[in-house]
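Hey,
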Amino acid sequence: MTAMRTLLDQVVPATTGWSHVVNAGETLRIVDIAGRQAVDFLCYDAVDPGDRYNATNTLKVQGSAFIGLGTVLYADSGKPLLRVTGDSLGRHDTIYGCCSEANNRLRYGVTGTHSCYANFESELAKHGLDRSAIVANVNFFMQVPVEADGTLGVADDVSPPGSHVDLLAESDTLVVLSACPQMLNPCNGYNPTPVRVIVTAAG
């Protein structure tokens, strides 16, 4: 069995964002420490950040509306960025996108809320990118069932404490995530909590 060495082990505080370049062959593990915490997630070709995660390519190639074990996250170009090699939960959302000031105003009639969109903007700026780089994202540890009549909504009590997903970098990949601050629907159990990120490599 190949020994793994830890390159990074960090806790991302509740409601905040995080970003990092995961090099080809390295694995990013995201851990839902306390449970019931959505993690909004985007990824980009680290060499050409304009080539970003493409939900349509990813869903069509896999033939599934959800992310799970074995799913490959593809870029606009069709380049494979990350592969799900470990998943204790089994299914993650690709439909609902990230919370934002605009979305919270439209859906809930409130203003002045913190959001994953704002976290994405802040983290992307560190890498010379702006809000035009924000596209439809993955929501790890969150499920949005789609009923036969097209009805959808955020499922409650989805992710047990310690749930994790492992993402193997197929190429050098900039990952950007948000420990979702949403308090207006049950994606975080109305109690945002920290998440843990671990990057490992063989050898």
